[in-house]
Amino acid sequence: MSRTGATREMWHFDEGLVVMQTGPDHVAELEELQRIVFPTLAPEERFEARHYLRHLELFPEGQLCVCDVQRQPARVVGMTSTIRMHFDFEHPDHTFADIIQGGWLTSHDPSGPWLYGADLGTHPEYRRRGIARALYAVRCELVRRLGLAGQLTVGMPSGYGAAKRDEGISAEQYVAEVAAGTRRDPTISAQVSIGFSLGKLIPNYIRDPVCDGYGVVLVLPADREVRLP
């Protein structure tokens, strides 16, 4: 992965894929990508173009997207929206709605020591090409540049809804098995493989049946590197 600088910072990886800071020219495609990546998420918890424009006003360097520049015109195929915040690891019982504030991300605290990932997604046609890893790597660079404590997010255990239905397993047992490596979750296991540590389980975090509403705190301290794709 290589970094170039012009009017907009860009980080190149894979063949024709580029991480760059989100701009106003990306917001319509990002709104569509939200619907594709999170089809079962409650519509009021998805970002729209008008929200992305506001994010750029609040914290422009924390908004990133991935474009396939081999296509003409270039296509947005990945994204992440981040904010800065203080975080109580002993009492993390917040919700996704608390974080996104109706989609506007006004929970952003410019003095916050943690970079909080509100979302991260990859277009289904571009999975297994290192897009998530590249976004996390660029977020690591942002953490170092701003002198932050690290990255954190709340991941959706996206295989739990089916496991609960088919096996009757509790969320606590499901996440414990994922942590032990005896069960693979489509979302959490990928984040663990990148270097995130699992924290507390949060019930009623998000309105999405794939995870039965649960979220898991995930932490990547500033001194932990993400290997580039």
Question: What's the topology here?
Answer:
Elements: E1 2-4, E2 10-13, E3 17-21, H1 27-37, H2 49-58, E4 63-68, E5 75-85, H3 96-100, E6 114-122, H4 131-146, E7 150-155, H5 160-167, H6 171-180, H7 188-194, E8 197-202, E9 215-221
Parallel strand pairs: 6-7
Antiparallel strand pairs: 1-2, 2-3, 3-4, 4-5, 5-6, 7-9, 8-9
Helix pairs in contact: 1-2
Q: Would you mind describing this structure in some detail?
A:
It is a single chain. With 229 residues, the chain is of the alpha+beta class. It has seven helices and nine strands, in the order E-E-E-H-H-E-E-H-E-H-E-H-H-H-E-E. The protein has helices at residues 27-37, 49-58, 96-100, 131-146, 160-167, 171-180, 188-194, and strands spanning 2-4, 10-13, 17-21, 63-68, 75-85, 114-122, 150-155, 197-202, 215-221. A hairpin with a 3-residue loop joins strand 2 (10-13) and strand 3. Helix 1 (27-37) crosses helix 2 (49-58).
In helices, the fraction of residues equals 25-40%
Major pleated sheet: 9 strands, mixed
Mean pLDDT: 93
Shape: globular
- Strand fraction band? 15-25%
The main sheet orders its strands as 1-2-3-4-5-6-7-9-8
Give a quick precis of the structure.
The protein is of the alpha+beta class and 229 residues long. It is 29% helix and 25% strand. A nine-stranded mixed beta sheet has the order 1-2-3-4-5-6-7-9-8, sandwiched between helices.
Salient structural properties:
229 residues, alpha+beta
